[in-house]
Design a protein that fits this description.
Elements (H helix, E strand, L loop, with lengths): L5 H15 L1 H23 L3 H15 L2 H16 L3 H31 L1 H16 L6 H8 L3 H25 L3 H9 L4 H34 L8 H11 L2 H29 L1 H13 L13 H21 L17 E6 L3 H16 L3 E6 L2 H9 L5 E7 L4 H7 L3 E8 L3 E7 L8 H5 L8 E3 L6 H13 L2 H4 L1 E3 L3 H13 L6 E5 L3 H4 L2 E3 L12 E7 L2 H4 L1 H8 L5 H14 L4 H11 L3 H5 L17 E4 L3 H16 L5 E4 L2 H9 L5 E7 L4 H7 L3 E8 L3 E7 L21 E3 L6 H13 L7 E3 L3 H14 L5 E5 L3 H4 L2 E3 L12 E7 L2 H4 L1 H9 L4 H14 L4 H10 L4 H5 L5
Helix pairs in contact: 2-5, 2-8, 3-4, 3-14, 4-12, 5-6, 5-8, 5-10, 5-11, 6-8, 7-8, 8-10, 9-10, 10-12, 11-12, 12-13, 15-25, 15-26, 25-26, 28-36, 28-37, 36-37
Length: about 850
């Protein structure tokens, strides 16, 4: 009988649907993804134990006190094994898939119960949907919706729908026909008969169907982890692929707890929604008022809702006020928060290189997301544009089939490791087996098995299609399909017992360091000449992400670097891959800049290690620029120390060499007296900001005061006070000795000594109350942006000429710190740069100046190179 090409027909149909109904699949994808994101956000927002309390209250309402306590303990256990986020992802998937399934299943069941022709058509379709292996639904899901949540939800809906339809139809058909006939006899409309008679009586059976829908949805959601659906499915899939007993058991326990909770709660929900069940529950509660029977008492719906709402409000409040933690420090914000989706196969070099780049990209300001996939799903997802890149493409041999199929939709960003080799290996204690030719004659020794890895791996296809036929191994040997971790586990067991075993391996691999193995020679060259490990990206990635693409093109690791990185990750353990990467980076200083270079980032200066002493005044521009230079110098390898001084103390300390440098000298007028006194022991490094002025300012709502001359006769308006700053500043001395006498204000006004923060606080209080106030200010200052204030004109030029802000140092500074001196000589800031820097420091708050500076530097990439250039 000729072969029917059923598979080809289905494949053609799937391709036609994908090409012609892409708009529909995009719409479905947007709706499902939006539903999942909304539910997942709600479930993930509260603190774990508070949300566990909410779920426990629901359990108390539905089943009683003991189930509520057990539910809380179960979810607390999930939190303690650090799988809370994954569990909530899974719960979101189940809820979304369950709701969609019920919305379609119940109406279909009602329709089938009222129309036997519909029932006859639907029944075989449901049989097909329920008996088709669950994994099969993932394949068209990937083609239509790509990878991630949506194909998982859609496949789950299809797989879990049959019991919902069947149980709805069954429940309605089991309703006593005499009751239906009686309703008809009284002239009841069929719709009212359905809603008032059939559905209430069928509700227990329908709810049993809902329970089965939820359970099947949960089982399918775990399977959907293979295609990148988030949650416990991904955890279990990783555990299976790596034969990690601990991870698998923990993931399995979390699934069991979630399944038991959903099963018990949905089965008990019937007692709350069915009228008959509610009456039975009321009778039961009436008896449960004494002794241990009180444990079966359940709160009324209103009481339970009050408890849930109260806990939800507390949980939401805690989430609002909680801060986000980020372990990776952004060293150069190149990415500006741009996301990069990286897929990987659970192979050692793939895991190592993926989490290495996750760390590097986070340090460069990107937001990478990494996800483990099966080989076929990874390449398919990349071709569909759902995954941006992967770092474990073995070409030209191992992944040749995938590259040949998808190369028009992909970009090869180059090789980062090579050459590699694929091989079959045996323990060295197995004698007389040195080549693949020798293996053919030893079938009984190895029990006719060669232990392989993932069935979708290129090496497995190469083994089956070329290597085994070339050496006649396909006659006497079976290639056992499994996973890399399963193969290594079997190798470890056999090696411990000194039993013969043949495994598929590749070089480089840490197994050759751990065990004494013989790499069987490929005398016929069936494995090919060896691969190189390439970085593969979706088409268009280089154009959208040119910086990342360039880094990837230049990415290289030696065998020593790769194996040491793999070792650190192995030592860190599952789930702590990034910690292993950070440990490796600490042992390999300079790798961040080498692999992801940003011009000048973290390059060491010629005088790295020098420790200049920097002084500053508590003035906004001085605080901001001092902490800025502290950050820049530390990146250049310096060890600066900073200390706050009064103006007079600063000049005295700098003239004696106790302070090396400061950045806030207002000259030639503002601090002239100090310069004149100490200039023989100082050096003027040069101006970094010009066009400054010393001012008196008043709020703009104070009418008739536009100049210093207008203050005369208005002493009572301002209570005879001008709010000043630090008494030792040149501006304060000039104001008292020159400015006020010049305008005849010295007898009418008293200048209040204080500090810049005190002056600003008084300005803010008076401004809020709309009270007149006159304050000592200067330009530039952020207060002119925050408040509507008038800078009083100085027609007599009593404040003198405009100042420049200059850097001053001890006379030994140029020789002691020549590189730093050279940077300061060329340093200059614009008004916009200084104002935004001051604002960032102000917003960070007292004690957080370094964070404010870092935020500003992240928004000004290249500022380190601009201020402190280092010749390469």
């Amino acid at each position: 009988m000729p072969r029917l090409q059923v598979g080809d027909w289905i494949n053609s149909g799937v391709n036609w649907l994908r090409d012609n109904l892409s708009w529909l699949f995009d719409f479905i994808s947007s709706v499902v993804q939006g539903m999942y994101d909304a539910v997942n956000t709600v479930l993930g927002a509260p603190e774990p134990l508070l949300f566990a309390g909410i779920l426990a209250v629901l359990a108390w309402w539905l089943r009683g006190l003991v189930p509520a306590v057990l539910a809380f303990l179960g979810f607390a256990l999930i939190d303690s094994i650090e799988l809370w986020g994954e569990a909530m992802n899974t719960l979101a998937l189940v809820l979304v898939a369950g709701v969609i399934t019920i919305v379609f299943a119940v109406p279909l069941g009602i329709w089938a119960s009222r129309n036997r022709a519909v029932s006859a058509v639907i029944r075989p379709v449901l049989d097909f949907m329920q008996t088709m292996p669950a994994f099969v639904y993932l394949i068209p899901g990937i083609f239509f919706f790509g990878l991630g949540v949506v194909p998982g939800v859609v496949a789950t809906v299809i797989f879990s729908m049959p019991p919902g339809v069947r149980m709805t139809e069954l429940g309605i058909r089991q309703v006593d026909t005499e009751l239906v006939e009686a309703a008809d006899a009284f002239g009841t409309h069929p719709r009212r008969t359905l809603l008032r008679v059939q559905l209430p009586l069928a509700l227990p059976t329908i709810m049993a169907g809902v329970n089965q829908v939820i359970m099947l949805a949960l089982s399918m959601v775990v399977i959907a982890g293979m295609v990148g659906a988030e949650g416990l499915g991904s955890t279990v899939f990783q555990a299976i692929s790596s034969v990690d007993v601990a991870m698998g058991f923990e993931g399995g326990i979390a699934v069991v707890i979630l399944a038991m909770y959903l099963d018990r709660m949905t089965s008990a929900l019937n007692q709350r929604v069915s009228p008959l069940a509610r009456r039975a529950l009321a009778r039961e509660q009436a008896k449960a008022l004494s002794g241990f029977k009180v444990l079966r008492w359940r709160p009324a719906t209103s009481v339970a809702m009050v408890g849930v709402v109260a806990l939800a409000l507390v949980a939401g409040g805690m989430h609002v006020f909680s801060g986000d933690e980020d372990d990776s420090k952004v060293s150069a914000d190149v990415g500006k928060g741009q996301s990069v989706n990286i897929g990987y196969i659970n192979w050692d070099e793939g895991v190592a290189s993926t989490f290495l780049w996750k760390e590097l990209l986070e340090q460069r300001g990107f937001k990478p997301k990494v996800q483990s996939y099966d080989v076929g799903a990874l390449w398919t997802g990349m071709a569909a544009g759902n995954i941006d890149l992967q770092t474990d493409g073995w070409l030209p041999a191992t992944h040749a089939a995938y590259w040949s199929k998808y190369k028009d939709k992909l970009e090869n960003l180059g090789s980062w490791y090579g050459p590699t080799s694929l091989e079959v290996a045996v323990p060295s204690y197995v004698k007389d087996v040195k080549t693949l030719d020798d293996l053919e004659k030893k079938s009984s020794t190895f029990k006719g098995k060669i232990i392989g890895i993932e069935p979708g791996a290129g090496e497995m296809k190469l083994m089956q299609d070329k290597v085994m036929p070339a050496y006649g191994l396909n006659k006497n040997f079976t290639l056992v399909k499994g996973s890399t971790a399963a193969m290594l586990s079997q190798l470890d067991r056999s090696y411990a017992k000194q039993e013969p075993i043949a495994v598929t391996l590749w070089s480089p691999h840490w197994a050759y360091n751990k065990y004494h193995l013989t790499k069987l020679k490929d005398t016929k060259g069936a494995f090919g000449k060896g691969d190189h490990v390439d970085t593969i990206a979706r088409k268009g990635f280089s154009q959208k992400n040119p910086q990342v693409a360039q880094w990837m093109k230049n990415f290289k690791l030696s065998e020593k670097q790769l194996t040491s990185l793999e070792s650190e990750i192995q030592d860190a353990g599952k789930g702590k891959e990034q910690q292993g990467v950070r440990a490796w980076l600490k042992k390999n200083p300079g790798m961040v800049n080498k692999l992801a270079p940003v011009p000048g980032a973290d390059q060491k200066g010629k005088d790295a290690g020098a420790a200049p002493k920097i002084g500053y005044f508590p003035w906004d521009e001085d605080v901001a620029t001092t902490y800025l230079w502290k950050n820049v110098l530390e990146r250049r390898g310096y060890k600066p120390s900073i200390k706050q001084y009064d103006v007079g103390s600063m000049f005295t300390g700098m003239s004696s060499g106790q302070v090396d440098v400061e950045f806030d000298a207002w000259l030639p007028v503002g601090q002239k007296q100090y310069w004149d006194k100490y200039k023989e022991n100082l050096v003027d490094i040069g101006p970094w900001y010009d066009k400054t002025s010393l001012d008196i300012a008043v709020p703009s709502y104070v009418k008739g005061v536009k100049s210093l001359a207008d203050l005369k006769g208005k002493g009572s308006t301002f209570k005879g006070r001008i709010i000043g700053i630090e008494p030792g500043t040149g501006q304060m001395k000039m104001l008292k000795n020159k400015v006020l006498p010049a305008y005849g204000l010295d007898k009418e006004y008293k200048v209040s000594d204080g500090s810049s923060p005190a002056m600003l606080a008084q300005l803010e209080r008076s401004y809020a109350k709309h009270e007149p106030v006159a304050v000592v200010l200067w330009t530039p200052h952020w207060a002119y942006s925050k408040y509507q204030i008038t800078r009083l004109a100085d027609p007599k030029k009593a404040f003198g000429a405009n100042n420049e802000i200059r850097s001053l140092g001890h006379k030994s500074f140029p020789k002691k710190y020549p590189e730093f001196y050279g940077w300061l000589k060329k340093w200059h800031m614009t008004n916009q740069e200084l104002a935004s820097l001051e604002q960032a420091v102000q917003e960070a708050g007292k004690g957080n100046e370094e964070k404010g500076v870092q935020k500003w530097m992240d928004a000004h990439p290249g500022i380190v190179d601009k201020m402190a250039p280092v010749a390469s």
